[in-house]
Structure formats: structure tokens, C-alpha cells
Amino acid sequence: MEKLLNFLNPDQISTNTEDLKTYGQDWTRYYQPNPKAILFPKTTEEVQKIVKWANLNKQKLVVSGGRTGLSGGAVAKDNEMVVSLEKMNQIHALNELDMTIHVEAGVITEALQQHLQEKAYLFPVDFAARGSSHIGGNISTNAGGIKVLRYGLTRDWVSSLTVVTGDGEILKLNQSLVKNATGYDFRHLFIGNEGTLGIITEAEIRFTHPHGDLQSLLLAVPDLDSVMKIFSLFRKHTSLMAFEMFTDIAMNHVAKSTGLPKPLATDAPIYLLVEVEKTTEAAEEDILKCFEVCMEQNLVVDGVMSQSAEQAKIFWRFREDITESLAFATPYKNDVSVKISNVPEFMQAIDAIYKKEYSEFEVVWFGHIGDGNLHISILKPKDMLMDDFIKKCRQSDLALFDTIKKFKGSISAEHGVGLSKKSFLNFTRSEEEIIYMKKIKKVFDPGLILNPGKMFDA
Amino acid sequence: MEKLLNFLNPDQISTNTEDLKTYGQDWTRYYQPNPKAILFPKTTEEVQKIVKWANLNKQKLVVSGGRTGLSGGAVAKDNEMVVSLEKMNQIHALNELDMTIHVEAGVITEALQQHLQEKAYLFPVDFAARGSSHIGGNISTNAGGIKVLRYGLTRDWVSSLTVVTGDGEILKLNQSLVKNATGYDFRHLFIGNEGTLGIITEAEIRFTHPHGDLQSLLLAVPDLDSVMKIFSLFRKHTSLMAFEMFTDIAMNHVAKSTGLPKPLATDAPIYLLVEVEKTTEAAEEDILKCFEVCMEQNLVVDGVMSQSAEQAKIFWRFREDITESLAFATPYKNDVSVKISNVPEFMQAIDAIYKKEYSEFEVVWFGHIGDGNLHISILKPKDMLMDDFIKKCRQSDLALFDTIKKFKGSISAEHGVGLSKKSFLNFTRSEEEIIYMKKIKKVFDPGLILNPGKMFDA
């Protein structure tokens, strides 16, 4: 094999059993990794050589970033070669006038965040996998996360891209221009392509100035209509950073698992964690006024504003520790979205289905209301066998996805399609769209070399 | 013809000579309009029928919005049928929770702006052609304008699109979701497609809350390096709405043509018009502080802050009346962009070329520094014949575009490619990119029915 790939050094090719297992899978654990080899290119040109070689030799490739995906998008289970970009991890000089920074695709999200923070700048795309995920992977999946309400998705921070297409051409897309009206903007086609059209090797990333001090509010809310009213109120009058919702079930699990005392005296079916920027006295007054309106209009039954950064951190634990506090019950997870205005009706419709047809399930909701993004975790009943549980959950998925289709929502808000959602792609995208997707795939990857079987069967 | 298109009413088809002339051209005036007929569909389904009929009958189509384009993108000069969307001008109900509004493609930009303003909301994409341009046309060209620095381009405000592709499929793209990770985001491919891939018939448009009071500053600046320093300063410490540059030549032409007294006592080679939001007292102090720093560090030789909305309006006339004040000399215009950080060096390089090789030309620069977008107008010398002038300008374009290529800039920042820039597309996009563009064209418009000869020769 080293002979075949003689443009790489021996240390850039691994067939070590441990490596095959590590680099052959992502955070999805339903698939058995089975790659043929792992390749570690160091330059865009080496990636190009690999892709050209793969086309000549009909060798399928799987691109590999930080492998933190949750839909099997980076799994190599069918004798593919994995192209890991982890050796392409250079952070180049930043340009303070353009407010962009040139990075290689294998730079870890947190490394870029810290690099910019040291220079008093902010890269605002942020999520739990920040310590492992690669910038290239973020772009390939258009990663979102916890600050989308304020800062948008990865798509909004990509100023230019270097891509090696499936047939081995190097494209340098958009050249970091703000205004450029010269034909189809392929940059946006490669953002979110999940490694099926090309391999993103380099990017210029936009950054911003850091935000001001933050204030957190924890609110106990009687119903979903109130949630939406509170959202509108804060969005209009404050600089909203986060607007997170979770149910009393989630709150109770966190309290139980962490031992933290519940921060509010009054119980309610829904809790909101609202985070706003308070840079000026006027902003502080507006925040207080919004809080008072919520109380006066009975939109909340109880609430508290953080008095310190420490207290805010505790509020946030009730949101951030949800996943961990549910782990004991091996939850079955979905990550879906609908239009913001459809959130209440959609949640009620799904809730009714679970209550009627799956009354043995404990279902935990939480999510980013401001993006219409809802996480649904079904807890495994103690006495149910794992296989039966998964089977039953997958059955319930059909009802969930049917309802999503009815509400014109997305079966995958952030996690992509990969392997695990591809059978359900047609619940969000029309038949015609999927046909066009397959045709676009063939334009950029005519040999069908890249990430086979992901997103759809080409 | 009425028989052939029997799914349309007679009043939806015109072959009237005046109509053929009107609907066969845009604001570009280099081309002779010569369409076969003008069609006025009223629904997406009628557009679909027209496209299917056109494919069967090998009839080329040109989509027509407000026809305010400046690159001939909406010109019908070769016996095409024009599909005017002006009868599709319904503004549907807005959704205050989603902050989106559903419109048909033929809605005029200003009509949407006013509709939202009446409800205390803002559609922030704004430019001189607002009274005629259609939302559909804005999307098809990814229109920018005077507020890009603060609010971005049209692309940033499109929540969903309804498109009839070149082979007659109706696609409903993205369904107004904020987070949707389910495959290629075709919405972004149709934004900026200049009518070559599909006909945009409906859209959901995002809107925002209006901004606060504005403050304008007019600054006289000694050199380009100071311009960039002033830009960085204001961007960091204020909420910047506009950062417009123009040269003394432009200032003098406006003063002469309008009779307005010059607002600054000291002359300088460059003037800046800076517009910032001043919502709070703290913001006002920051603005003042920036102004003081500019004076102390000799970044400006003179400057004035508007004391009233009326005075700000006068400042703005020195920027907005440039085009009109140059009209006497039938200027030859280019609209280009480079990375912000490249603006000074690029301007110096171009200036040197004009001064050396085209010393008979008076060249007027103005532009949006914050976007790297520069407008270059060459004034016709009084004693030069029009044909000679155009010929000489086109010759100078080659030097301009060569320099743009060297600086990795764009030969068309906002105006698109259309007919008039297509021979120069390769100065900004690589050969490989153009080959892929042609392939993408064939995916969505295999019959090559839509907007023939625009952007490239398919």
C-alpha cells in the first residue's frame, strides 16, 4: 500500500488495528468501523494527490475531522480509506482589518477560539464538542450550537474555502471577499456537504469583537404560549444571547444527579434560561423591565436574575448537565427543528403521540427556542431490554418524522444526515430535491469516491 | 401564440411593440431589446407551465423583475420570451414570532420596506433602485447596497425560496427553518443565480427591529492608511452603519453640480462619511472619543459631526449625489471589490495605471470601504468621441481586471455578470470553477432554456 501511495511518507499511512478502529468511527456508536487504511496528508496538494489516486484505483475515501458527529457521517465501515486532516492543523496569521484568519481544516475548534481570545477577539461558534471537533468538520456539517440565536451558524463565519473536489480539482472559493457577484457561490454548497462533494482543506474564518458582560435569568413558566411571549419580549428589548428551554422532568433529573438545590421555590412544567448582554445601564434597565412585565402579566410563576457570574454558572448547569444526568437511562435522542412559531403546536402534537402510543416512555424535552431547535430524549424504562427499546424508539421515530413533515420541519436540525438519518431524508427534503442532490454529487464526484452511502445512496 | 400558451389568459401575453422594448431590456443600455413576447404569469404553477412548455418547444426564456440591473442580466435580445413576474406582487401576512414575511417575487423592494415600516419593523437591504427593483431580482443577484456593513447582503435575509427550475420542477427550499442540516442548501445556489438555473417565484424574507438614532461624521483624510485606521477604530468602538469614502474630485463635482457649500474648511484628497448608531449616552461618548482620537493622531485634517438630521442629510448628499453630478460626462463605470485590507494598495496600483497610460481620463473613486467595494467612474473628456471613449475604457478594463486578479478581487462586487461581464468572469473565477458552473447549469436547466448567454456560454 505504501508503494501505491508513494507520494506520502510511510508515517502518513497507518494500518494499525487500533488506528483503524479509532479513525473509522465517530461519536455515533451503531456502526462497526472497518477501514482499509488511515492516511494523514499534510497539504492541500497531498489531499489532491490522494483523491486523484483514489479515482484511478476506484478506492472509496472517508474524510475525517474530529469525528464528533452524531449521525455516522465520518464512519468508515466498508473498506474505505480514511483521510484524516489532523496533521493539517496550522493556524496562520490573522488579518485585523479583514477580521479573518486563515486556518487549515484540522484545527480544533477550541484551539481557534483560544487563539483568538488571546488577541481579544471572538470566534463565536461554540458547542459541547469544541475540544475535539475540527474547523473543517464544523464547515462540512454547518455546525450550530449554543450561540446561534446571537451569532448564527458556521455558514455565517466562512469567508473563503479551499476544497479538493471528488474529481481532484482544487477550488479556492470566494477569496475572502465581502461582496462578490460573479456567479454561483459554491462556498455555500460545500458548507454542509458532509464530505460527499469535496474535502475542505483550508478556510478563512471571520471573527468578531467579544461581547459585553452577560446576565442570566431563570424563569418558571406555566405553558408554551407564555414561553413564546417571553421570547418575543426579550428579543425586542434586549440583546439576547441564549433562550434555552427545558421541562420539569429535565430539571428534576439534573437536581437528582448533581445534588444541586433547585434554584426556584415554585414548580412549573417549563423552565427558561435566558441570557442577555448588559453592556450599559440602559440595557440593565431594559432587562429588569422585561422581567417585571413577565411577572405582572403572569407569564412566569417564579423567576430569578443572576447576581453574579457564579450564580449564572449554576443556572447554566441546569441546562448543560441535562445530557449527563440522563445518561443512566441510555436515552434515545433526536435533534429536530420547526419554525419558531410552530414550536408550541408541534410539541403538543408530539407529546400527545408519545403519551398515547408510548406511555411507558419518559420523554425529556429541551432545546433552543430561538432557533426552533428541540432535543428529544427518550429514557429507557428500567425493565425493557435494550434491543426492544431501540426497536420501539425507531418505530416512534416514524410518528415523530411524520409530524415533522406535517409541520414542515427538519428531521436533523444540527446533526446532519450521515448514515443514520439518510432513510428519513425525504421527511424534510422533497423527492425532486433529493434527485437534484444526487445529480450535484455526480458533478463534483463523478467517480462516487467520497464518503459513500452518506446522506443518500448516490 | 395565445393558442400555444392556452393556459394563460390573453391579457397575460403581450407582443405590443412598446412592451417588447420595455420588458426586453434593463438599466444597461448597450443592447438592443428583441424579445418574441412578454408573458405575465400570476402563480408559481403558471410559471411551471411556461417552463415546461418552453422545454417542449425549445423556446428560450428571460426572467424579468424590476429590470434595474446594470450588467444586462435581464436583457432579451435574441427572440426569447420574457417572463415578467410583475403580476406576482402579493405581500402575504407576516409572522412576528418567526420575524419572516411571505412575498411573491414581483414585490417591489420599497413596497416591502414600507409595509414593514408601518408595522415598526425593518427590511434592511437598501439601494438606489429600491423604487423599481423586485425582491425576486434582488435574490437572483444577491443585491447588496448601502447598509451591507451592518446588515449584510440579500443572502442573509432569505429564509426560504420557492423556485421553478429550468426543467420545470417546483422546489420549496429550507421551509423557513433556522437550523436544518439535511443535505445541500440549494437556497444559496439560487441566490445569485441571475435567472440561469431557475425562476424564483416566492420567498420568505427575514426582517428585524429598526435601529436607533443615527449620527453622521464627515472627515477630511490625508491618505489611505489613515482611512483604514479610522475604519478599525470606529468598527471596534461604535455600532457602525456606513463607512463611505470618496475623493476630492467627487466632492468638487457634487459641490459644483448642486451648489452646496463645502461642509469642511480644509481640503483633503479623501473624504469619509461615517454613520453610527447612537442609542445610549455611552454610545455617544464612544463616538466622540473616536472622533477625538482621529484628531489627536492626525488621522484627519478636518472633520465635523452632524448636529441634526438635516445636517446629516446634507453630508449624505455629498455621497449620494456623486452619480448624478458626474452624469454630464457620461461616465464609464466599474464596480469592483477586494479584501478590505487590500484596498489601499489596490487603489494605488490602479491609480498609477490610469495616470500613466490614460492620463487624459479624469477618474472618480467612491465606495464602501467596509465591504472592500469600490466604484470607479471614468469621465469622458469633452473632446473625445463617444465611440473612442468606450473603446479606450474597455481597453483600460483589461489592466483593471488584471490588477483585480492579482489582488484576488472581484470584477463585479454587486452588479452581477449578466452579458456585459461574462467575458471577464475568468479574472475572478478559476477555469475549474467555470467548468463546474456550466455543469451545475445543466443539472437544473438541461434544455438550456433559461436566460441564455448570461453569466457564461453554457
Describe the structure.
- Two copies of one chain form a homodimer.
- Helices cover 33% and strands 20% of the residues of chain A.
- Chain A has helices at residues 17-23, 44-56, 109-118, 135-141, 148-151, 187-190, 224-237, 248-258, 281-296, 309-320, 322-326, 343-357, 386-406, 431-444, and strands at residues 13-14, 37-39, 61-64, 81-84, 91-95, 100-104, 158-165, 170-173, 198-206, 214-221, 239-247, 270-277, 302-305, 332-337, 362-368, 373-379.
- In chain A, strand 15 and strand 16 form a beta hairpin.
- The longest helix of chain A has 21 residues, at 386-406.
- The model of chain A has no long low-confidence stretch (mean pLDDT 96).
What is this entry, summarized?
2 copies of one chain form a homodimer. Helices cover 33% and strands 20% of the residues of chain A.
Which helices and strands appear, and what pairs or packs with what?
2 copies of one chain form a homodimer.
Chain A (H helix, E strand, L loop, with lengths): L12 E2 L2 H7 L13 E3 L4 H13 L4 E4 L16 E4 L6 E5 L4 E5 L4 H10 L16 H7 L6 H4 L6 E8 L4 E4 L13 H4 L7 E9 L7 E8 L2 H14 L1 E9 H11 L11 E8 L3 H16 L5 E4 L3 H12 L1 H5 L5 E6 L5 H15 L4 E7 L4 E7 L6 H21 L24 H14 L14
Parallel strand pairs in A: 2-4, 3-4
Antiparallel strand pairs in A: 1-2, 5-6, 6-9, 7-8, 7-9, 10-12, 10-13, 11-12, 11-15, 14-16, 15-16
Helix pairs in contact in A: 7-9, 12-13
